Structure prediction request, 185 residues.
Amino acid sequence: MNNTIIYLIGHYGVGKLTIAKEICAITGARLFDNHLANNIVFSLIREDGSSPIPDSAWDIIMTIRREALRAMTEIARPDASFVLTNALMKDDPLDHEAFAEVLEVSRKRAATFVPVILTASDAAHDERIPSPEREERLKMTDAALVRQRRPILRIEHPNRLDLDTTILPPERAAQLIIEHAERLQ
Prediction:
């Protein structure tokens, strides 16, 4: 892959980070997991995975995120590829902004943009959410809250790929995404 931005979007526990790591290991792409920005703030406010996050925290996180996106646009090598992860909600204006900003980075870099919508069954969420690994990464760990999930932002883009990760192994999901991205170049 050359100058490609793969944007993995889905609810908590669908495997975004696991799949992103697989893609990066295979392709050499650089990972910008949403928790890279989130955890700078979460670690300072002692986010515990189940308490509500103060609204003001998201403004700070968006500033950090925007600076990272600026680095991707202005400093990263022109041939570098990236894998980003995020849970973007349809009813959250900040999530609409986040998507638009990544799309703009892609445009400025003249990169191949590949939005990937990941889904999983309720049973898969129930199994994956309350894990020690998620807790360690300051991720959502309350399966009951996840079950009440809000609709994901609907992405209309010609390069979009939809994958259900309920029984799809992360290695296979990564391969399918890479093959899709390579067909678009």
Q: What stands out?
A: Helices lie at 16-27, 34-45, 55-74, 93-109, 122-128, 132-136, 143-147, 170-184. The radius of gyration is 16 Å. The longest helix spans residues 55-74. The chain has eight helices and five strands.
